[in-house]
TrEMBL record, chains A, B, C, D:
GO MF entry, a single one: dihydroneopterin aldolase activity
Organism lineage: Archaea, Methanobacteriati, Methanobacteriota, Stenosarchaea group, Halobacteria
Key word Lyase present: yes
Pathway(s) this gene product operates in, as recorded in its UniProt entry: Cofactor biosynthesis; tetrahydrofolate biosynthesis; 2-amino-4-hydroxy-6-hydroxymethyl-7,8-dihydropteridine diphosphate from 7,8-dihydroneopterin triphosphate: step 3/4
Protein name: Dihydroneopterin aldolase
Amino acid sequence: MASDAQQACFEAGIKFGSLYHQFAGTPVSPSSTRSLETAMAESIENQPFCESVSVEIHDDRVADAIDHENGYTELTGSLMDVEMRIDHEGVVVNTQMTMRDGYPLMELVSVVDGGD
Amino acid sequence: MASDAQQACFEAGIKFGSLYHQFAGTPVSPSSTRSLETAMAESIENQPFCESVSVEIHDDRVADAIDHENGYTELTGSLMDVEMRIDHEGVVVNTQMTMRDGYPLMELVSVVDGGD
Amino acid sequence: MASDAQQACFEAGIKFGSLYHQFAGTPVSPSSTRSLETAMAESIENQPFCESVSVEIHDDRVADAIDHENGYTELTGSLMDVEMRIDHEGVVVNTQMTMRDGYPLMELVSVVDGGD
Amino acid sequence: MASDAQQACFEAGIKFGSLYHQFAGTPVSPSSTRSLETAMAESIENQPFCESVSVEIHDDRVADAIDHENGYTELTGSLMDVEMRIDHEGVVVNTQMTMRDGYPLMELVSVVDGGD
């Protein structure tokens, strides 16, 4: 009933919500950004129709966010950029999360129906 | 570039991934199902374009899942049904999560473009 | 090998870490604070040796933390106070989390061994 | 008021609850266990007084837990062993989590007060 493209966009959204709410709150410092990026990407790539996930946690933003003496902060959307590619029944959806007016905006970049 | 209906489906997916991965793992027993249902629904209803969320955690499934002496289990998709309605720019999307072959399947139930 | 009091303090810590990292990141607005408080408390009270949990999410701090147009924020330690009482083998431990120099400090308030 | 050893045990508990509830529910397959182990350990090592964390996610248990066609499962305590060493004011606490009668039991292994 929903079109293939709509289904693909729905799947893309699921991955974004999953990634964000699974990992938000994780303790992070400049010395642990690389391992967290990798784990986040590989974890979400397990989900159905998820072709690739790229997570970039900005070390400088992490350093700036450390506002107490304990030397770490908690992961939030403001510290990272995320890109994902979903492929569902031949429809390829590219998505990204970037900061927009202080809000980590998740958005569709392109929806391409490969047809047949 | 993406259509309004595609955007609405993307938003619907975000809410489902958020709900699932924020609350999966929460300690739950038959005595705490009602408060958790309410908190999950009200929490996700805060997100943009989310009209309504309904969460039903099945007390009998929770009781059956308690497999040790401590009297509680951890929330997973197999213990609950979820329905959501998203309204994005006049496109109304109804979604649900139900168990299908042992997997908590999130799916689009209807996508209706109210047009203008 | 560890004393009963040490065991009780270990259990108290588990509950605090659980509560914080299960619920940090949850979307919250002044209209959903009450249900989230209740769910957090009832959820963690399911855990072994956990006598009582009290969560107070401050509506005014939630309102102040909303920094974009979407009308909600994400739960962090700076928005709430938590108190817990653990009873492990007759040792009663009272704990609290409050803000201290910008850090949500979890601490032991009292450790009382009922002994015999 | 609480002794140094009690404080150290409390800190040890916090780390265990944090690790468990931050990462429970993470999608995992045999191809993503190594990155998740590393991220979990490095993340929690950021927390105060946490000297070292070792996480072992068992590939065979992950493979056995995959009960649907999508090729992954969600992280739970039954899939991993965890060891941690906390050092708080000269008191060294060793802790572990292992499966015991179907329950992921977190426990104190040793509490050694280095004294002075």
